[in-house]
Amino acid sequence: MKEKFKVSLKELNQKYPSGLFDFKDTSKLEPLDRIINQKRAVEAIDFGLNMTGPEYNIFVTGLEGTGKSTIVRELLKEHAKNRQTSEDLCLVNNFDNDYCPVVIEMPAGSAVYFSQSMTRFIEVLKIKIPEFFEAPSFLEEQNAIHKETSIRQKKLLEDVEQFARNLGLSILRTQTDYEVVPLLDGKPMSQEDYQALDEAALRKIDEAMEQVEEKLSPCLIEMDNLAEQMEAGLKEKVASITDQLISEQIDPVRYYFKDCKDIQIYLKNVKQDIIDNISLFLGVKSQEENEGEKVLEMTGSLVKRYQVNVLVDRRREKGAPVVFEPNPSFHNLFGKIEKKPVTGSFETDFTMVQAGSLLKANKGYLILDIEPLLSNPLVWESLKRTLQDSQLRIEDMPDQLDYGMPSLKPAPIPLSVKVVLVGGYEPFRILQSADARFNKIFKVRADFDYEAPLTDENIYNYARFIARVCKKENLLSFTADGVWAVIGYGSRMVANQQKLSLRFGPILGILKEADYWAKKEGASVVSEKYVTLALNQQRFRNNLYEEKLSEEFDDQYVLIDVKGRTTGQVNALAVYDMGEIAFGRPTRITAESYMGPAGIINVEHESDLSGQTHDKGIMIISGYLGRMFAQNYPLSVSISITFEQSYDGIDGDSASSTELYAVLSSLSGIPIRQEIAVTGSVNQKGEIQAIGDVNEKIEGFYDICVKKGLTKHQGVMIPASNVKNLVLRKDVVQTIESGWFHLYKVTNIEEGIEVLTGIAAGQPDSNDCYPKETVFGKVQEKLKKYHELSLQFGK
Q1: The Lon proteolytic domain covers which part of the protein (predicted)?
Q2: What angle, 0 to 180 degrees and rounded to 10, lies between the N-to-C axes of helices 480-494 and 504-520?
């Protein structure tokens, strides 16, 4: 085997700048006060915030843990503090239509004062109005007016009565009217006496009655006019007094809100409504002594009629509002009209209306997670419509309307809010391609990076970030080597020697856990020892399944060879992602070749265990074999490939080169070294392509080799393009440095087969023939034999 394929120690070890850290621990550092390497996202957010119009809402994308939600909130708060504080909003009764309450906008911080003032105003009027109108002086004046009117009415009627008596008639008052009757001996004539009169007498009485009725009719009209004038006068007097009483109490409020036209209109309507319904106030006291429960109910209804429902109170806010809604349900987002049960039904009124997050964020910013929004299509569609219309409607959920029960319908409220959606790449891709309205409303995308270059500046900012976390979370300070250990973890997260992870969520977790272990041992600072301990303990808590799988190799329950040579058999590397951790596990791939119709039998595909990407890898192998060995005659070989002892689904093409090595070994008859595990995808040109999770794959095979016994010959072969991704565990690196484990890098199949067999792959001549003692030469020889035999059988 040629040493040129080995990964050198220089390539293996991360190179950190020396002398960069001149501090004893992070308490000596200035905590980080800015964002690391997110210029693109920050500028996009700044652009979206400064663009006006309902279409420039923002969608923030990025991997989980990049801190995008926290950063967005900080940026929005910084931007909002320089803007004017939004107005307060109140809901008041519509005296013309109780089912359509009115929204009033007023200066920030004044809504509660307005509400309390109106409550006090009504409480005072409940006392003052009855006190004034039931006072002896007012009652005496009222009685005098009644008496005067009564005297005038009586005088009018007496004149007619005297006229009637002169004609032998009298005027009697019935329950509903006045009646003219003849007299006999000074008394009303009976029916018998009246019928006993002769025709001349009857005619004389009728003529007299007509004369009296001619006098009585205008008299009664005049009496009614006097009564109406008296009532109108009393009403006008009551209205004047009530107006004065109201003005005394409400004028300070009116003056306070002199610049608020809507409140001035509302207060005018309140005054008129009280005057029109003065009996409600007068009736309260008259029933207090006798009917306690009823009067309480009436009093509550009276107060509620003029109550002010504060929808949005901004007394404690400075600048534009920034609202984060963690649970964007229909009611939480758009508001709610509550209802209470009453005698088998439900009732509601304007005081039971509640504002949602959209209204609370009006003229400011609303932050929402996209996943819960998309889980409720009704909410998502309503949000888009609301943003497009720039109007908010507080209403019952459309799919929960009870048409047998009346509900409120507050007038639409003008809405100007900047919505910031936070989510992953997949929801954004789906919405952008499938939702036309989404593209019109969310025109700004802010994409958060998950990694940053490993520069001196970023490394130092990492240390300052740790200093900030320690100060904010009250953690022990980290030593310089503790910081380097965290930086190593940051590189490991992105699996790149030249990069640092910007997913600060997991990093924050490690900082807290390292602090825990340091405090548990009574340390005064967090050193590298405790960072390593935190990482190991975190893995220990989550790797039970990994240990159970590893135990299967102990007693050959799962077959794997880590030494010796075998034909048509290669150790591949799979990765299990368990969420919190990922780990590698070797698996045996075997290939068997035999004469038959040309083609590869993908056992996993035939048994419905193969995914599309894995099937693609198998097809690529067919293309490679055809390019390399079917230029002079067709292939007449059948090849069966399988993952041994694999009973779950297989997908991905990172084992495609491994499968090809097994095929080449089977065709050539040259055995492959079992102490070398292989990973890497291959294209039809035979080039080895990079794969993911290279560190986990290497460590997975290393752990099995340690379990079965290191031989100084074991190792892993990886694509050369993955060398930069090597950020291995310390124990693995130390074993490689000591020469007990090895890493190999290859760029093509030719190099890989040479590493695995110790024999050169071979180069074709002008006739596409390979040297006989090479791997490809022996493959070509076997394929030629199969072709010749197939021709014989064909004959």
Answers
A1: 564-759
A2: 140
